[in-house]
Amino acid sequence: MSDVSLHELLHHASGIDALLDVVDALTLESDFESFFTRAANAARDVVDGDGVAIVALREDGDLEYRFFHGVQQLLGGFTGFRFSLDTGTVGRALSQRRTLFEPDYPRSEEALQPFIEVGLRANLILPMFNGDQPVGALAISWFREPPEAIEPARVTLADKIAQQIAVVFQRHLLEQRLRHQALSDGLTGLCNRAGIMQRLEQRLASRERHGGRFAVILLDMNDLKTVNDAFGHTFADALLRDCGSRLREMCRRDDDVGRIGGDEFLIVADCEAQWDTPLPLLQRLLAAMSIALEPHRGKWPLASIGVAMFPDDGTDLETLLHRADVAMYAVKAAGKGDYCLYDPALEARVRYAERTAREVLAAIGRDELALYYQPICHLAASESGRAVEALVRWHKPGHEVLTAGEFVPEVEAAGLGLIQELDRWVLKTAVSQLDAWWHQGRGPDCIHVNISGTYFVSKDFITELRGVLARCASMPSDALVIEVTETTVMANTAAVGETVNACRDLGVLVALDDFGTGYASLTHLKILPVDMVKVDAAFVLDLFDSQSSWAIVTGIFAMTRAMGLKAVAEGVETRYHQTPLRALGCDWFQGFGVAEPMDGAALLSWLEAGRGGQ
Ligand code: C2E
Ligand code: MG
Ligand code: MG
What we know:
Strand order of the largest sheet: 12-13-15-16-17-18-19-20
Bound molecules: ligand C2E, magnesium ion
Distance between the termini: 105 Å
Radius of gyration: 37 Å
Low-confidence stretches: 1-10, 295-299
């Protein structure tokens, strides 16, 4: 506008049109502030004022000073200044929908003290409309001696400019809202994936230039789907909002927090000094999440947190995110409810696990997997009960038979629900085999099947178990014993408890496997309605060498006897182990000293040779 001589223009009718044309052309400017500067300049010059401000009408009905031109040093501090629609000259002009000139502002009834204090002497308020809707006002102000009156033609012209500004201002607000929406998560009010990625990129660029370390923290609430299914979406949404605000509270103001997926959050937090680690923050985050989830514990496995550090673990966005993901994955594989910092060793492990898991599942289709059966024997032949544990084996071409211990942990560590597929196959195969044996009137009476924690607590498990049992023509459901490891219980006691109850409703028995390896074993026994415990082989194998193993095993047997639970000693490698175990009150044994795992045909011969009872 400064190229155009305003006074010249104003003295010709065609000049007014030309001025409006110029302002019109400015409305195409993509940057609002530069448009506003130039349009406001024109409006100010038209009436010979000192400064111009946009007073926006907010959605909540308040007015807010948003942009200033010409008098920044006096009024700039008022950016964001809010007041209600029924105060001030702007409020009156807007309510009355008319232009208002206040030549003696300090004396006017609506004068606001802060403006008097900075020396505001007169105001021309031009209400701005979008169609019929008021959207705010253009306020032109005087700090010098104001005019007593303003030529109506000039007011009209200034008003026309104000309406042009209104149009562009509206467009600017809309763009801002769209940008905000595109970058923020409607549910939690945090950044969304795009938003936090943008912030992460900005932080990367700035740290690369100026140095500094920061942590990329990936936090997964695990199985939000379970909560959705159990309590409904409204509840799950409220929980997510709660978690979001707790996470925000735990972080510093300049840390970025975003929700990047249904139940996944990403936090980007600066480490202040070279030696600083995010461990205290991670502990705070875990604690915050467990408070948020407290009433629903058990329904919901705990949060898993994976961390990658800039620049230690990566200097670009993809690498950092991938590595935080790898670390989170390690937490999930280890049972959730913890955090883990990225380590290159984790990566190799996950890749290897995933590859192995996929190979194992493909092996099912090629008929390379088989079940072996290891007898579980009672010391009195009459009580033998002829139970066996089904153990999966892989006849991998070019290899000796692989035992479960050589590949099941990999399938579990791979995550992605792959272990569930394997377990499903084992369950179906084991139960239909036992049913066939019952039908033929031979073989063991009962079968133990190992089920991984993730499958056991998944919502599909009980439904699928019911389906498997429904297809049995001969065997009763109490001929099936599901083995879950004690560490599964540790990770999720309440959910395990529910599934155990559901199993009991179906008549299926449940055993706690590898008992003694968890930390809160004794407590769990009290609250979990399991039918038996299997004392971990480590204690049995150690029995002669370690006083503490002896003490633990003694304690477990005394307790299970008192609770009326069946106890099985695993890892009974020799007959020598049986004697002290018997003395300690153990009646049931499993181990190479009794019988090795064997295929179905070998088991039948073994049983038929009468070796089931000891
Ligand atoms: P587990 O349930 O505790 O099974 C016992 C493991 O100890 C078996 O190893 C068995 O071969 C081995 N074992 C038996 N007697 C002795 C002994 O006297 N001394 C020693 N040192 N070991 C003995 P396996 O078959 O390699 O299985 C390892 C683990 O893998 C199992 O431990 C179980 O937790 C898991 N597993 C096995 N089959 C399956 C399955 O079908 N699904 C799932 N999810 N896990 C399975
Ligand atoms: Mg087992
Ligand atoms: Mg075991």
